[in-house]
Write a structure and sequence with these properties.
The protein has helices at about 45-50, 90-105, 125-140, 160-165, 205-210, 220-235, 240, 245-270, 275-280, 295-300, 310-320, 325-340; strands at about 5-10, 15-25, 30-35, 40-45, 60-65, 65-70, 110-120, 140-145, 145-150, 150-160, 170, 175-180, 180-190, 200-205, 280-285, 305, 355. It has about 350 residues and is an alpha/beta fold.
Length: about 350
């Protein structure tokens, strides 16, 4: 009897987020949550053969279809800058194999593998191609120096926001997702509305837009984003304040507030001009970047805002041993809701209330 592994994977700019449910014959099911660096780098065959790395859940080296890759922490560079127009599907296969390969290498049984992968709506024309590539290559590939194999059962690509759409129970509604790279809005008139044709993305208007307007040089923009987030959560005492002198702090906090006001002015103008958004009965809000905009969103959305508190609570309790921070809970919600549709929970979860349509 084969073991079964169900993977939920989101290859986000700020990090590859993964949920795994592993069912081994005669053993208690295991569920894991993993955050892997989004860094990835193609290398030559000679370079690959010279490596002496031990693959793990945070990084790996692997090879398939004649190409050789470093993924996760092994591909990190000291300087990090996001290319805002990069197509995620180009690297999705290697990122999926990086995490699946670790479980294949650890399992004493042949694994039946199911994969749910999240990609942006604007990459919908590539969904089928990506599914076929993953299905073909995950069957057998080189993970480090080992050849690993599995029995792929299902690979499905979902548009970002699908998890929020499955949670929505009040219509018409809007979904606002604040990522590191982009901000996306999805307007749904009813339960039958599809995510892809109703999604609009402000490319480059994620957290990186604040960083671009903030006069402070971070060599690694993800470190910068983390410091700004910590500052937003505890103004004057957060991560940014901790690395500044008293004189610098007052100046930089004013600059940070100005940068946030500038970016929000553009976003709010577009949102207020969107009649579907303004007419929505409920606005579902997620993404790690949403925590930057708490006060601004409260003014704009008022009582219509829903931050999916039950889902955050569920993630926190399910993976209590991992001590997931609030910011990471926000980043995981969309993927969690998609993955959980196929990974049957080991313990009963909170019921979803009935749908409500205007």
């Amino acid at each position: 009897m084969n073991a079964n592994a169900k993977f939920g994977i989101d290859t986000g700019t700020s990090g590859t987020k993964i949920f795994v449910q592993l069912n081994q014959p005669g053993e208690v099911s295991i569920e894991n949550v993993i955050l892997q660096s989004s860094a990835i780098r193609k290398v030559t065959a000679s370079y690959y053969e010279s490596l002496n790395l031990e693959n793990n859940r945070q990084g790996s080296h692997l090879s398939f279809d004649g190409d050789h890759w470093l993924v996760g922490e092994y591909a990190e560079n000291a300087v990090r800058r996001t290319k805002v127009n990069r197509v995620k599907k180009h690297h999705a296969v290697a990122k999926v194999l990086s995490i699946v390969g670790q479980y294949l290498s650890e399992s004493s049984h042949l694994l039946d593998v199911e994969i749910d992968l999240m990609l942006p709506s604007n990459e919908a024309p590539y969904y089928r191609e990506t599914e076929e590539l993953i299905f073909r290559h995950v069957r057998r590939f080189t993970y480090g120096i080992k050849t690993v194999c599995c029995n792929p059962v299902r690979v499905q690509v979902h548009p970002e926001g699908s998890g929020f759409a499955s949670y929505a129970n009040v219509y018409p509604c809007s979904i606002l997702m604040f990522g590191h790279q982009d901000v996306t809005i999805i307007n749904l008139k009813d339960e039958q509305a599809n995510v892809v044709p109703n999604a609009y993305t402000w490319t480059g208007y994620g957290t990186i837009k604040i960083l671009q307007n903030f006069p402070f040089a971070f060599s690694n923009e993800l470190t910068g984003a983390k410091l700004l987030y910590e500052e937003s959560m505890k103004w004057g005492e957060g991560g940014l304040s901790a690395i500044l002198s008293a004189q610098e702090k007052s100046v930089k906090l004013v600059a940070l507030k100005e940068a946030k006001d500038l970016v929000w002015a553009d976003l709010s103008d577009d949102l207020e001009a969107d009649t579907d958004f303004m007419d929505a009965k409920r606005v579902y809000i997620g993404g790690g970047g949403s925590l930057f905009w708490g006060d601004y969103l409260a003014d704009l959305c008022q009582a219509k805002a829903d931050i999916l508190a039950p889902v955050r609570k569920e993630i926190k309790s399910t993976f209590a041993k991992d001590g997931i921070a609030a910011s990471l809970q926000q980043r995981l919600m969309d993927l969690y809701l998609v993955w959980r549709q196929n990974a049957v929970p080991m313990v009963p979860l909170l019921p979803t209330s009935a749908k409500e349509v205007a």
